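Exam revision sheet. Question 4 asks you to relate a sequence to its structure. Input first:
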Amino acid sequence: MHFEILVEDQSGKKALEILVPKIIGSGHSVKIISYKGIGRLPKDLNSSGNAMNRALLNQLPKLLRGYGQTYPSAGEFKVAVIVVCDLDDKCLSAFRKELLALLNSCNPRPLTRFCIAVEEGEAWLLGDLNAVNQAYPHAKDAVLRKYVNDSICGTWELLADALYKGGASALKKRGWQAVGSEKSKWAEEICPLMDVSRNASPSFNYLREKLNGLITDNN
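Answer key, structure tokens:
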């Protein structure tokens, strides 16, 4: 199979570039495309959107319609679109219904799965504390131990409090570009050490199961 993976930011792309091959193994191709933040779905799902707005959800209606035209799910050449984004403070059930409504509005409809990190992509890193500690031996264990997997708690800030000198407050003072850079660094240093078959994050395991399920169903 070929996987087209759409992700909301550069740190997510760096993480998935490492983790997806670990999950699907060899014999498949992957293209990961990052956007400029998550944005929001337009009210008019049939609009072409603002081409200048590079946020993932703003572009998603046009993207899925395009994939449906190019790679309809009934086609012989199997291409799966995987949309990966953070839940942030949204209701998971309501957000998933919005995304499925968008997909169902596409005709033809591309083969698509929505994989939502709860609360943020850093939850998937925190799902493997062994990898975090290998990458950062001096991480603050008391901070890591208080994390509840896939909880709405300010996930990246908690990871920053454990790994970054001065914690999240010091990192925020450097600006959002520095935050993004640090997130990418965490992904690059922790993801190679992660065991994708043993992760405590339910939303990461959902991603793994969806990827493997697509491969199994289309063999």
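Marking note for examiners. The chain has two domains: 2-121+200-217, 122-193.
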